[in-house]
Amino acid sequence: MNIPKEGKEEYIKTHSHSELAKKWGVSLLTLDTYAKEEGWDQEHKLYWRDIALEVLKKETEAYNLAAVKELLKAVGISRPVGRPPKAEVDRHIAIEAKIANEYKDDVERLNKLRLVKD
Fold it and tell me: Which of 40, 43, 21, 38 is CA-nearest to residue 30?
């Protein structure tokens, strides 16, 4: 195999794994398999994710709204602060509807009891 032992850093920082495979004289499948076995693929993803976050942070400082939205997505916040998620709102509406139905059923039951006493 033509993959150099010290090729880890080059693999992690490369833009194109296919070009790297050509440079090292191996198939892309061989390179990917080797990288998965050695854990290089995860380090590659983390490296580029960190770079992307740094770029988004710099663009956010320049008040680029698209970058702000992407950064919020990246950190797991997809809604403005203070606005509850749709699932939570739907759950709250369902609970209110259930309470209203139970109240209506109780009022009807009590009305029937009054009719019997009269």
Answer: 21
Residue 77, pLDDT above cutoff 80 = no
Cα separation of 66 and 63, whole Å?
Answer: 9
Whole-model pTM: value is: 0.55
Alpha carbon distance 43, 9 (integer Å) = 9
Closest CA to 65 of 56, 78, 77: 56
Q: How far apart are CA 30 and CA 104, in angstroms?
A: 69
Q: At 11, is the secondary structure helix, strand, or coil?
A: helix
Q: For residue 18, how many other CB atoms are within 10 A of its CB?
A: 11
For residues 92 and 98, is the Cβ–Cβ distance under 8 A?
A: no
Are 71 and 49 within 8 A, CB to CB?
no
Exposed (0-12), middle (13-18) or buried (19+): which is 59, by Cβ within 10 Å? middle
Residues 71, 60: contact at Cβ < 8 Å? yes
Q: What is the pLDDT of residue 103?
A: 96
